[in-house]
Amino acid sequence: MDHIQAHLDGELSLVVLAKVASFSPFHFHRVFAAMVGETLNQFITRLRAERAAARLSLNPGQSITEIALDCGYSSPAAFSRACREAFGVSPSAWRDGGRRDRKIGKEESKPGQSKSNPGKDFAVVSFHIDLQTNQPTWRVQMKAKKAEIVVDVKELPEMHVAYVRHIGPYAGQGQLFAEFFGKLMRWAGPRGLIRFPQTKMLSVYYDDPHVTEEGRLRVDCGMTVPPETQAEGEVGRTTLPAGKYAVAHFELGEHEYSEAWKAVMGGWLPESGYQPDDRPCFELYLNDPKQHPQGKAIVDICVPVRPM
């Protein structure tokens, strides 16, 4: 799955993927379908369609033709067929509200976009560029909370990540994250991989909860590890690419993550001059909430971006 996610624009034939997984094509196809619940072709087709659908929602200034070609479709007509097959509506209907009508994700899902009017809930109140680093910084007001957040666009390095993956609903399920991070720590501890403060803890999100069905949402509970670390059993290993990210800094209670994601995706992003690219979003955890006076998590929400 990691190879497919990282190479959606490349050749993803059964023969190529079976070779990557060190299986025969016959056995790989059967094992993949049993583990994922979809055939290989269904999985790849769905991911490509969902990526394009998310672009329609997040990039209103980009034409449907541009999105179709940028996402690897041979023509706008091919994209239109794929969109109708996946979501039951045309690309233009999806952009005009079809995604809201489907009501796939829950309101409290993360990461995602605000379903309300961002102009009413959030406002960019200042912007400046550091003359020494050329790093842009925004301040965004969260009107309901009467609070401001800081968003920086910066270059982040490549990160090697060991993870335990969950597929399915996760909104509002703090205990689920605790369980998966617990599994990861029990694996990492005996191997000498827990080396705070060098070790970073994070959650990686691959799907837009307002596009992907809840039962197919993917999230990795992960930690940074040395590049030579080998995956075992339930623990996988992936690499988060280096590049430009919008990094928004928060202190959050357990039920405040949804509003934080809305501030970034629905408040900051439309006014920023940036658009998301195809790398996954992630949350980087900077403290132990048990040691915070109010029990809050200090979190950087990191969204991969490129100029519009």
Can you tag this structure with a few keywords?
308 residues; alpha+beta; Arc Repressor Mutant, subunit A; 2 domains; 10 helices; 26% strand
Shape: globular
Largest sheet, strands/sense/barrel: 11 strands, antiparallel
Number of helices: 10
What would you say the CATH architecture of the largest domain is? Answer: Alpha-Beta Barrel
CATH level 4 superfamily of the largest domain = Regulatory factor, effector binding domain
CATH C-level of the largest domain: Alpha Beta
The arrangement of helices and strands along the chain is: HHHHHHHHEEEEHEEEEHEEE
Query: Strand fraction band?
Result: 25-35%
Mean pLDDT: 85
Give the end-to-end Cα distance, rounded to a whole number of Å. Answer: 29 Å
Number of DSSP E strands: 11
Low-confidence stretches: 103-109
How would you describe this structure to a colleague?
This protein has 308 residues and is an alpha+beta fold. It folds into 2 domains: 2-102, Homeodomain-like (Arc Repressor Mutant, subunit A), CATH 1.10.10.60; 155-307, Multidrug-efflux Transporter 1 Regulator Bmrr, Chain A (Alpha-Beta Barrel), CATH 3.20.80. Helix content is 36%, strand content 26%. The chain is built from 10 helices and 11 strands. Helix 4 crosses helix 6 (76-87) and helix 6 (76-87) runs parallel beside helix 7. The longest helix has 19 residues, at 40-58. It is globular, with a radius of gyration of 20 Å. The two termini are 29 Å apart.
